[in-house]
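Worked example 2:
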Amino acid sequence: MRRWLPGFVALSAIWGASFALIKVAVEAGVPPLWVALWRCALGAVTLWAILVLRHERVPRDRALWGHSAVVAVLLNTVPFTLFSFGETRVSSVLAGVMNATTPLFTLLFTVLTVA
């Protein structure tokens, strides 16, 4: 068996479970903004734990933190909020499938804008 397969399966299970858990949360009455907040917070705690376990230092560059804040808003906060809001209207399976099409739409957008 290939060495990458167990990690790939685990990552797939974690990624897919996140959409099911978003659905569980919004059906339980948790507002979409709170779902996004907790998802981002848990991700941040995980990254801090990895830094601690690897004995690495937190970057000190202000510009890096500024750029990271912009990226966090555009690529984490906004999409996670929209996914949470979207799952109040559609199934978690459809949300996961639509998210999986992101690379394909990115390719299409790039071809249309560059060509």
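The chain has one domain: 5-114. The two ends are 41 Å apart (CA to CA).
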